[in-house]
Specification:
single chain, globular, alpha/beta, 54% helix, Glycerol-3-phosphate (1)-acyltransferase, 7-stranded mixed sheet, 7 strands
């Protein structure tokens, strides 16, 4: 195996048992496992942890049952829709919108397991590795590290290494990858692919930009949560940044977002894959030779697939009408659904704890935007297709 990736790659199977042995000595991690599996004695949990010798066994036997619990108790069902004639034996670079720090990729892996497919390698920013044991855990769980907060020179070198690792994983390891379309979550749900992501992916190729991206078998994926458990935390952050432009989340904020996202109610959840867009990228490359214009068009192509693939729920329609003051979708939901959503907003806003004055009108508007923007973008994407 290529050792130049050792500081970012996920673990190999022969590294799993030693890593889990180290994790079994971490009190904080064992406390988390005891919370997830409250009916199992700690010594039984430790024995199970020490019994795994491969990543897939660890995922299927320890992680997957917890994801089943989440689906059964914290959602109204999770679905993954693949296109007809989708070749499930091939590796893909799944690029999706980003709603939840942990679950976006975790629930995708659960659905892939149920379809008899391989799980994906997961890109995770090192800003989330707030304790050493978290890095150990994610690398056992098939994650690779994206380094953040680097100097311009370090960013270039890190991007080259990351690009090479992604290409190596897809084309040589024949493993699929999940990566978000942008750094961090789109707090207002106005999902846009960062052109810098595509530029990074191109760095490791030897052909034209279009060919280099096409070789990665990019498959856009739309993720739609009916309810976002972190909506009130995202709204709170909007006001904090409005009131203090220098505001930055703390590691404790990230931990709270992770915990709230995992253990909060999500309603219905839909993953919809667009399929491999290699041919569309090649077509774009044949029409656009200028680099900046190509990256803009390629990013917009991914956005179009993600936006058109959203599952639109009635809460999105209610939010749109409340935000715009229109009654465009009034015939598609009933009065109780509208009242229930307004009560939901009130309940979420009540959870927000701010040191200064709480601007409830602003917070409500930001939460309405979160639920309306997927519908707004879905409408625009549909118009482009027609």
């Amino acid at each position: 195996m290529n050792n130049k990736f050792d500081d970012i790659r996920c673990y190999y199977d022969d590294e799993v048992a030693p890593a889990l042995a180290r994790l079994s000595e971490e009190k904080q991690f064992m406390k988390v496992l005891s919370t997830i599996y409250p009916l199992l004695p700690k010594d039984v949990i430790r024995q199970r942890l020490l019994s795994f010798n491969s990543i897939i066994d660890f995922q299927k036997e320890l992680i997957y049952p917890f994801l089943q619990y989440i689906e059964a108790n914290l959602t109204k069902g999770i679905n993954l829709q693949l296109p007809e004639n989708f070749d499930t034996s091939k590796p893909y670079l799944y690029i999706s919108n980003h709603r939840d720090i942990i679950l976006d990729s975790a629930l995708l892996c659960a659905k892939l397991i149920e379809k008899g497919m391989n799980t994906v390698e997961i890109a995770i920013g090192d800003n989330l590795l707030v304790f050493p044991w978290i890095e150990e855990l994610v690398r056992v769980n098939k994650s690779f590290i994206v380094k953040r907060g680097l100097s311009p020179r370090q960013v270039l070198e890190s991007s080259k290494t990351l690009s090479s690792y992604i290409r190596f994983t897809i084309n040589e390891k024949l493993e699929s990858i999940w990566i978000a379309q942008r750094e961090g979550r789109a707090k207002d749900s106005n999902d846009r692919t960062q052109e810098s992501l595509l530029k990074m992916m191109n760095m490791s190729g030897n052909e034209s930009i279009a060919e280099n991206l096409a070789q990665l078998r990019i498959c856009p994926v739309s993720i739609s949560y009916e309810y976002d458990p972190c909506d009130y935390l995202k709204a709170k952050e909007f006001q904090q940044k409005r009131d203090n432009p220098d505001f930055k989340k703390s590691p404790q904020d990230d931990l709270l977002n992770m915990q709230t996202g995992v253990m909060g109610y999500k309603g219905r959840v839909m993953y919809r894959a667009a399929g491999n867009i290699a041919n569309e990228l090649m077509q774009t490359g044949s029409e656009i030779s200028e680099k900046t214009a190509f990256y803009q068009t390629a990013a917009a192509l991914i956005d179009k697939h993600i936006h058109s693939g959203y599952e639109i729920y009635n809460v999105n329609k209610v939010a749109y009408d409340l935000l715009t003051g229109e009654n465009k979708y009034g015939k598609e939901y009933d009065l109780m659904e509208k009242l229930d959503f307004e009560k939901y907003l009130e309940k979420q806003i009540m959870k927000i704890d701010l040191a200064g004055s709480k601007d409830e009108d602003f917070l409500r508007m930001k939460m309405l935007e979160m639920y309306a923007n997927p519908l707004i973008n879905h409408i625009k994407a549909s118009e482009k297709e027609n």
